[in-house]
Design brief:
By secondary structure, the protein is mainly beta. The protein contains two helices and seven strands, in the order αβββββββα. It has one domain.
Amino acid sequence: MVEQMRATIRSDFLNIVANDSVIIKEKQRNLKINASIYAFNKSFTVEDYDEGNPSGQLTIFGSLMQNYRGPVGTFRGNDTVTGYYKNYIYDDKILEGISSIGTPAKRGNMLILTLRGVY
């Protein structure tokens, strides 16, 4: 699967950029995010990561830059107690010229409420 994604030619690219934190507001089972995520002064995290049942795997295919590592779940040994366990896969295309459009260039505000079923 990863090799197929790396071999795919594409012109689309999602950037999620925040001066402070990027927060997943709604937990979904086995959440997949295809994007470059930038949290300049804080972190990438999951709201209420320490509540409820385990949500499975959180996959980020792209890149993640954060000032400090934010929590996405809680664990007991190798078991996920709440939230997600991580599966972060670096997208090699970021090094092949797409970074010129994949890197934040100016300040601005954006609110993404819910993005569902996009793979």
